Amino acid sequence: MPGPSPTHLVRELTVGARVVVRHRLPDGSATDALGDLVCADDTTLTVATRRGEVVVARADVLAAKAVPPPPARRAAPHAAIGVEDLERVMAEHWRPLERLDLGGWRLRASEGFTGRANSALAVGDPGVPLVRAVAVVEEFYAARGLRPQVAVAHEVDGPSGVADVLDARGWTVLTPTLVMTAATDDLPGARDASLPDGLHVETGPAPDDAWLAQYHYQGSPTVPAAGRRILVSADEQVFVRVVDGARTVAIARGSLSPGWAGVTAVETSPSHRRRGLGRRLLAEVADWARERGAASTYLQVQADNEAARALYAGQGFGVHHAYHYRVAP
């Protein structure tokens, strides 16, 4: 059975993504354009490569796909990626309902469901002075009835330039968080993480009612419609739950983008903690990610959650960088 046509594959690519486009040359040979997809109209693609922009006619495209960001240092892929590139990767695993780009910044809004989907991701150059960029952020969220919020990523012990501007305007720090990464092949699998007797695992490509009932974002007893859309916003995702009898007692979500898997929404019922369920959830996502060729895996954990940090470190995750939210007064 034939696979997707190059035209179909091109339609799936997102402007701003890092891509490789194999295309036909006038002499009949073929070459690759590797870089950021900066424009895609009805007839051409424009790829910003290291040697400049390459314009490719859609009719000449032989194959096209998104690829992971380039390494920022010499190390394994999960450690070599730069802070800003990893932030962009993670953003594709939790896409907002609405997005407005301001230079390299992404202004995201999703009816208030989660900080990730309702904050300005301040990575790269906003294309305007920082003071003006912050003013645009304030205007964007005010127009939507949301409190202005900026996600500020930085090295664990390093400063961020935008933080100084926000400090001067009285923005406060919220939810300091660590990003941890691992080589997917190094993570334990399900066969290495047995469950107590009587418990079993169920997985699916979408969250069912039992999974959603166990997901308590910031203590909320229900997931709003916006949240349900965000949960299935990645290129692909899996929803894992551990079941005790007829009751779901632990959940996790795995997500996928080129080269990367993400782990989010890890929760275990208080009655079933310290029984190895968290390890099994991570293992299930790791097995799923390996089957799909994701070389690296990331997760996010609040900096003061020592128990979760210990669990993740024990499974092979190491700290990559940190971020926090700045909230307008």
UniProtKB/TrEMBL annotation:
Q: Pfam families given for it? A: Rv0428c_C, SH3_Rv0428c
Q: Where is the N-acetyltransferase domain?
A: 199-329
Q: Which InterPro entries does the UniProt record give?
A: Acyl_CoA_acyltransferase (IPR016181), GNAT_dom (IPR000182), Rv0428c-like_C (IPR056935), SH3_Rv0428c (IPR056934), YpeA/RimI_acetyltransf (IPR050680)
Origin superkingdom: Bacteria
Query: Which key words are in the record?
Result: Acyltransferase, Transferase
Write down the Gene3D superfamilies for this protein, in alphabetical order. Answer: 3.40.630.30
Name of the protein this chain belongs to: Acetyltransferase (GNAT) family protein
| UniProt source species | Kineococcus rhizosphaerae
